[in-house]
Structures are given as C-alpha cells and as structure tokens.
Specification:
Blueprint lengths: L9 H13 L6 H6 L11 H22 L4 H5 L6 H4 L5 H4 L9 H9 L1 H10 L3 E2 L11 E5 L13 H6 L9 E11 L5 E5 L10 E6 L2 E6 L9 E3 L6 E5 L4 E5 L5 E11 L5 H10 L9
Antiparallel strand pairs: 1-10, 2-10, 3-8, 3-10, 4-7, 4-9, 5-6
Bound molecules: 2-oxoglutaric acid and fe (ii) ion.
2-oxoglutaric acid binds next to β2, β3, β9 and β10.
C-alpha cells in the first residue's frame, strides 16, 4: 500500500478501517459502486446553504482583494452569481487555481458536524474526505462557472481518471464516492451533466496537459454520448460513483457556484448489509427535475 505523508495517513486509514468493520452500511460500498445508480436524495439544509454560501463568498472576496485590489469594492457589492459581469476585471484563470478554492479547515469541520454530512454518514457509514492536493486534512473545493463559458467546465470525464493520472495517491482497499452540491444555480439550465450507467464501461481517454497539469481528455465526441442534465436547485447534491462519466453544464444567465468532495471508505468483503443499504439510499434520477 502506498501512503504519502502529506495526504491521508496510514493512521487515518487504519482508524477508518477499524470503525468501518463495526459500522453497518460501509460494507455496502463495494456493491454500491457496482450498481448503475447514483443518488440525488441528499441536500443541504437552508441554514447550511446560507452558511456555506457565506464562507465561499468571503473566500472569493479575499482572493479578489489580492489579485485585483483596485476592483475589490466593485466585487464587494456584487452577488457572487453575477461574478461574470465583472470577471473581465481580473485574470480569471490565474485567480482561481484549485488551491484558492479549497474551503478553510474550520469551515470543513463545521460542515462535518452539520445535518448534510450526518445524513451521508448515516447512509454510507463513516468516511474520510480525500485530500489529494495535500493542502488541507480534508479537501472540499468550490467552483465558479460563468454562463455559457465553456472554458470554465472541463470535458466529460470520470473522476477515477484523475486518480489514475496521479492526482492524489489512490489507496488500495478503499472506495471513492464523489459528492457535488449546487450552491447557486439555475435549475435546468446549468449545473451537472452525466451519462447514466456509464461507470459500467471503460471509456477511451488520453492524458493531456491543461492548466499546467496532466489531465484526462475523453476520446469521444460529446454528441456521441447520451448526456443528461441533473436539474439541481441550490443545496441539492448528487452522490456518484467515481467511474461515472460526467461534467459541468455552463448555461443560464448567472454564474453557477458549486462545491465538491470525495468520500473515502475502506472496503469490506461482506456486502450483504450493503445491498440493502444501497437499494434504500440510492435512487436513479426519475427523469428530469427529480
Ligand atoms: O461542476 C463542474 O463543472 C464539474 C464537476 C465535477 O467534475 C465533479 O464534481 O467531479
Ligand atoms: Fe468530476
């Protein structure tokens, strides 16, 4: 097993393994990942939505203070979902590397205690949040996607490809499940796109250099994929297998703001309980608008 000191430690994993051997639904995860389902039944409470929006806004403004101090006052009066109106005032790409979009640890710790994370743990069992950047103990990062701005969304991909290309140290005997949550979005116009059932197949991709990183690029035209939009309202989450083909949607008239993280579970052989848990908590999208 390969461990990196800066990333999830052996001790954390041993702890999670210990906890998980006792915990009821975690044995399910292997199986959960084998099913052609994902869940849209988790969401932030209104209070959590307000608090996390505020945390993101404050980080957004602090960064703008640094990269464009002369324009900071203008941004301070702007709702974050109108960011695109003024983004010409800053070098957008340089301003927002992932490292600048990682929520502070104190915020993550608060989120961890809240109902959203509690509902995830109640359903899936205890988990770590991955820290592939090696910058925070647990990494939750947000994104800004300006309307109709293709450069703000990457190509369709499976998150597993990033791990395969060395973004983060993939630990053996663990399962990763991704969580994406809308903070500001226009239902049915922007947000998150996916190809249902796609995690059952291996899709062709190659590694290419983008934004100074080696990133995966799917070797298929999007028009050949059966892509559907997850019609999310603010606070709504999608929990999905990290082999699911997915990507952002950048339509609408406002800037979309969302956050993401990866749950890490220890694998366990017995999946009996898991099968039950899987069926209970994971519901396929019931058509658009579910
Ligand atoms: O929000 C996006 O544009 C992309 C989301 C994504 O790739 C993810 O959550 O893994
Ligand atoms: Fe992704």
């Amino acid at each position: 097993m390969v461990f990196s000191k800066r990333r999830i430690s052996r001790r954390s994993l041993v702890n999670i393994l210990r906890v998980n051997l006792r915990a009821k639904p975690v044995s399910a995860l292997n199986d959960i990942c084998g099913e052609s389902v994902f869940s849209t039944s988790f969401r932030l409470t209104q209070r959590e939505l307000v608090d996390i929006r505020e945390a993101v806004r404050s980080q957004w403004l602090s960064r703008i203070q640094i990269v464009a101090p002369k324009s900071a006052d203008k941004f301070a009066e702007l709702p974050i979902d109108q960011y695109h109106e003024l983004s010409y005032l800053i070098d957008h790409k340089a301003a927002w590397p992932k490292s600048e979009r990682l929520l502070p640890t104190a915020v993550v710790q608060e989120m961890r205690k809240g109902p959203f994370f509690q509902s995830l743990e109640a359903a899936f069992g205890p988990f770590l949040v991955t820290n592939e950047e090696g910058l925070r103990p647990e990494e939750i990062y947000w994104r800004l996607v300006r309307p109709n701005c293709l450069e703000d969304i990457g190509p369709m991909h499976a998150d597993a490809w990033f791990w395969e290309l060395g973004h983060g140290v993939a630990l053996v005997n663990t399962t990763r499940i991704k969580v994406w949550v809308a903070l500001h979005c226009e239902r049915g116009r922007n947000g998150f796109r996916l190809v249902r059932g796609s995690h059952h197949r291996d899709w062709p991709y190659r590694a290419e250099s983008r934004d100074g990183y080696v990133k995966p690029k799917i070797e298929l035209e999007e028009r050949n994929l059966d892509i559907e939009l997850f019609e999310s309202s603010p606070g709504q989450a999608i929990v999905f297998n990290d082999r699911l083909l997915h990507g952002g949607a950048s339509g609408g008239a406002s800037t979309r703001v969302s956050f993401e993280f990866t749950m890490l579970f220890a694998k366990k052989d017995d999946t009996t309980q898991g099968n039950r848990c899987t069926r209970k908590i994971l519901n396929p999208l019931q058509g658009r608008g579910s």
